[in-house]
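Quick question about two entries, pasted in order.
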Amino acid sequence: MRGFIPTPDADLTPDYYGRYTSYLAWYKLGQIKRIDDGEAFLRDWSYIRVDEFFETGKSILSDFYGKQISSYLELKHQERTIWFIRPRVPQDRVHEIHVYDTARVVPENFPTNVISSSGNALLWISDPHFSDDHHRFPLVSGHTGWDLSEAIRNDIEQFLGAREVAGVLLTGDLTWKADSKESDLAYSFIERVRSWATLQRNSNSIVICPGNHDFAFTATPWVKGEVPTVAQEEAR
């Protein structure tokens, strides 16, 4: 397998792309040029297959190859960052693929849809306790260390040799005292995990079970043994 390399310039690398994480390749943005009629421009191009871009050595998007790019929405629904394209030729197919319509999840207690994933393991995270003083990892990765998302990702890569998981189980307590700012930290963490684990939104691939610290049924939800009272307005 090709080696993973760190970013050539950490100062120019966004945190959400793993500034302190190694990848198989890095791309530097060059000139950004405005295109007045973007939809017409897109339709002059077609998708091309590059299996080497996928770690498994095989693309999972074979339905798109040899087909004209139809619209911005078709690109957006693929949940990708990079596409490989070539000029369209008359033999290319021209239909539009609505990925979102076929994968849409209707809210229900027990979803019946089957989730397909290239990962073969479930990631179980418990009791992260996001807060300013009780969470034991930096809230943002930096020179002092990785945040929890990057620490987990590094361990998975180092000890399991994997970079994808089939799903995430996140069991309480997500917060320390059911504070809205702590909930925002937990949500940001979930989004970072979802991104590097290549889990699509609205796919039921992340299951969350909150704990007692996540509901303010008392004035001090972090105190064990305290008798619950009526939920405070913040909890509602």
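Here is the second entry:
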Amino acid sequence: MDLIIITGMSGAGKSQAMNALEDMGYYCVDNVPPGLIVKFAEIPNKSGGKIEKIALGVDVRSKDMFADYLSCLEEIRELEYEFKTVFLECDAAVLSKRYKETRRRHPLLSEKSITIADAIKAEHEILAPALLAADYIIDTSIFSVTQLKTRIRELFADEKTNRMVVTCMSFGFKHGLPVDSDLVFDVRCLPNPFYLDELREQVGTDKPVEDFVLSFDTAKELFEKLSGMLDFLIPLYVEEGKSQLVISFGCSGGRHRSVVFAEKMAQHLSAGGVAVNKIHRDIIKR
């Protein structure tokens, strides 16, 4: 049996994630009270094999009942049911913008006269234990609906192949760390193209910026050491059964050095037969 439990911030994309799982053959039920998780986990045994894959959406819409979430997970763990939990995280400012654009009502905006920002903050506090307990964390702040569905498929489609998907991400430290990173490498130690007038407005995917960054012996040596370490680590993660690995490279703004390293590492890993994605989180930011 495959049991996947989707939780996370309201507006972060749980409905889209559930739609992706439904397209993959999962029996999906949204807004499930935590106390019913055990009952759903028992369905495959009672269905005579007709239902083998189940996805449940559990979140703060269950009100005070959500307080039982972790204890319910522990209960199905003691019953030796296998399951995975996915937490959809999202930046508060992005969530606020989504609610304003869609004019949807946040589930914590009830009879209390609080703002969207207050509701989002309160929800994050309620969900903090679920975030810490999650098997997978997906930050949807920069994802389109299509990108989120792709990530879900990468995680749970055709798991029999046991092929891990590696995401090489670039980011800028001034915009904050990516919450879904497994490994973070700081490349701010390298010369910065930002200080060259002819390169400032270009980005790491442009050849002149790439040539500049990789022209230094320190950059070449750093890449050699990092690629060697990842060549050693990735087979160990695969052996452990890990299905995704997010490797993040950070520089000051996320437009030059980190992009070069994410691109070059993605090329290196792909040449070695690894399934690779690339995300440049802050490449268009200033």
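Reply: Residues 2-158 form a domain with the Rossmann fold fold (CATH 3.40.50.300). The chain has eleven helices and nine strands. Hope that helps.
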